[in-house]
């Protein structure tokens, strides 16, 4: 499909620079089949789902993966993308033309790395010097890797260390938050339990590739970046039991959805999974594992807007986004939510 089919106009003032407070006070657009759109809030979620439904969350934890350093006189920015080894990470570099293989980059706070080879995606391998765990180095020298559309409008600050982390965050490794789950609070979870709505967690370490623009003109020519995910056998069994008993699996975020679909076989049975996935979901895809999606509002021409269009229909999602823009919904990572029920 042509990429320009997924374009739309978004006023810049619709981009949220801070999350709603409290988190579950964010607005939520209900897109329920072909029924009229409903303007709700995240707090309404227990009344919008059915007893026996299960919300599936991503428990990845965002690491402070953004570094600023110097290679000689050249200023270099690095966003870690994927762990390759104990002290080795792939990174997207800003001002990468000034870095050659073997160069030493000083990120301050006694954190240095040697630049390695560049791969076909433009990522550079960084070998961190010393014997401290890289996670400790990042806590000392790194910043939270806010999306470019926020970071270009204001500096990252201490608030972002908590704002850009979900209440489910346990497994270190993401360089972008699974932002749909930023709306959840312990109080909301308690109300969901009381309404008979369950929850499960899986792990998909979100990579910086999620923010890269689609440069191809056609979806057939776009190549997704790999991200590592895991669903253990016990979790897979419980998820399959939910659907077998008539409950629905509602993915909280496109990351949870992509991992569930990667792990499901042709018959819709979710298998244990511990591997990388490059799954690219566009209109025409047959969903196997999920029955709905809670997600924020995504960028024009992004792979994530393609995914929601595959779930609900391209025309339907253009109409939903036009409604959201007209009604003043806040967009992107710190923005409002939507509940999509095909």
From TrEMBL:
<dbReference type="GO" id="GO:0005737">
    <property type="term" value="C:cytoplasm"/>
</dbReference>
<dbReference type="GO" id="GO:0051075">
    <property type="term" value="F:S-adenosylmethionine:tRNA ribosyltransferase-isomerase activity"/>
</dbReference>
<keyword id="KW-0808">Transferase</keyword>
<dbReference type="InterPro" id="IPR042119">
    <property type="entry name" value="QueA_dom2"/>
</dbReference>
<comment type="similarity">
    <text>Belongs to the QueA family.</text>
</comment>
<dbReference type="GO" id="GO:0008616">
    <property type="term" value="P:tRNA queuosine(34) biosynthetic process"/>
</dbReference>
<comment type="function">
    <text>Transfers and isomerizes the ribose moiety from AdoMet to the 7-aminomethyl group of 7-deazaguanine (preQ1-tRNA) to give epoxyqueuosine (oQ-tRNA).</text>
</comment>
<dbReference type="InterPro" id="IPR003699">
    <property type="entry name" value="QueA"/>
</dbReference>
<protein>
    <recommendedName>
        <fullName>S-adenosylmethionine:tRNA ribosyltransferase-isomerase</fullName>
        <ecNumber>2.4.99.17</ecNumber>
    </recommendedName>
</protein>
<dbReference type="InterPro" id="IPR036100">
    <property type="entry name" value="QueA_sf"/>
</dbReference>
<keyword id="KW-0949">S-adenosyl-L-methionine</keyword>
<dbReference type="Pfam" id="PF02547">
    <property type="entry name" value="Queuosine_synth"/>
</dbReference>
<comment type="subunit">
    <text>Monomer.</text>
</comment>
<keyword id="KW-0671">Queuosine biosynthesis</keyword>
<dbReference type="InterPro" id="IPR042118">
    <property type="entry name" value="QueA_dom1"/>
</dbReference>
<comment type="pathway">
    <text>tRNA modification; tRNA-queuosine biosynthesis.</text>
</comment>
<keyword id="KW-0963">Cytoplasm</keyword>
């Amino acid at each position: 499909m042509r990429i320009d089919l997924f374009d739309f106009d978004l006023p810049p003032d619709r981009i949220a620079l801070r999350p709603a407070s409290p988190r579950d006070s964010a607005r939520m657009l209900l897109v329920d089949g072909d029924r009229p759109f409903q303007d709700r809030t995240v707090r309404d979620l227990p009344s919008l789902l059915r007893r026996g439904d299960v919300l599936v969350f991503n428990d990845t934890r965002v690491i402070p993966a953004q570094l600023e350093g110097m290679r000689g006189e050249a200023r270099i920015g690095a966003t870690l993308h994927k762990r390759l080894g104990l002290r080795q990470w792939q990174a997207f570099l800003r001002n990468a033309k000034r870095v050659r293989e073997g160069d030493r980059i000083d990120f301050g706070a006694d954190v240095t790395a040697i630049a390695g080879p560049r791969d076909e995606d433009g990522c550079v391998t960084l070998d961190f010097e010393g014997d401290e765990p890289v996670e400790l180095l990042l806590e000392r020298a790194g910043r939270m890797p806010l999306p470019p559309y926020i970071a270009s409008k204001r500096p990252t600050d201490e608030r972002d260390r908590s704002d850009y982390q979900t209440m489910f965050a346990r497994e270190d490794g993401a360089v972008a938050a699974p932002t749909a789950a930023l709306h959840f609070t312990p109080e909301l979870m308690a109300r969901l339990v009381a309404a008979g709505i369950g929850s499960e967690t899986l792990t998909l370490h979100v990579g910086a590739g999620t923010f890269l623009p689609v440069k191809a003109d056609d979806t057939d020519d776009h190549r997704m970046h790999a991200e590592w995910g895991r669903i253990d056998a016990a979790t897979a069994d419980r998820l399959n039991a939910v659907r077998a008993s008539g409950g629905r699996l509602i993915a909280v975020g496109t990351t949870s959805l992509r991992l569930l679909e990667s792990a499901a076989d042709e018959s819709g049975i979710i298998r244990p999974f511990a591997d990388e996935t490059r799954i690219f979901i566009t209109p025409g895809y047959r969903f196997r594992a999920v029955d709905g999606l809670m997600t924020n509002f995504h960028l024009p021409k992004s792979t994530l807007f393609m995914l929601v269009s595959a779930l609900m229909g391209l025309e339907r999602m253009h109409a939903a986004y036009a409604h959201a823009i007209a009604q003043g919904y806040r967009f992107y990572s710190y923005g409002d939510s939507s509940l999509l029920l095909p």
